[in-house]
TrEMBL record:
One of its GO terms (biological process) is regulation of actin filament polymerization. It is found in: Cytoplasm, Cytoskeleton. Residues 21-42 are annotated as: Disordered. Pfam families: P16-Arc. This is Actin-related protein 2/3 complex subunit 5. Functions as component of the Arp2/3 complex which is involved in regulation of actin polymerization and together with an activating nucleation-promoting factor (NPF) mediates the formation of branched actin networks. Arp2/3 complex plays a critical role in the control of cell morphogenesis via the modulation of cell polarity development. Belongs to the ARPC5 family. Keywords: Cytoplasm, Cytoskeleton. It comes from Nomascus leucogenys (Northern white-cheeked gibbon).
Length: 96
């Protein structure tokens, strides 16, 4: 067991007994209560940038058909739906 020494008690400067669970008041973040972006705003953004829609479709296509039953790691990585194709889609999106 460890001994109680003065040097080990130096870091204990917070009195936990002063914090009462019943006195706790949660701070409000001051938000206006909006949960997310407006649907009209999202639709207008999608119409503004048609290449993003193509990237999303490409990502969905890559995730739709994964090569699960193959044993070759190269086939899994480079096939449509493999990790390689998903990375290619995401890096292409980053450069646009």
């Amino acid at each position: 067991m460890s001994k109680n020494t003065v040097s080990s008690a130096r870091f204990r400067k917070v009195d936990v007994d002063e914090y009462d669970e019943n006195k706790f008041v949660d701070e409000e973040d001051g938000g206006d209560g909006q949960a997310g972006p407006d649907e009209g705003e999202v639709d207008s953004c999608l119409r503004q940038y048609p290449c993003i829609r193509n990237m999303t479709a490409a990502l969905q296509a890559a995730l739709k058909n994964p090569p699960i039953n193959t044993k070759s790691q190269a086939v899994k990585a480079l096939a449509a739906g493999g990790v390689g194709s998903i990375v290619r889609v995401l890096t292409a999106r980053k450069t646009v």
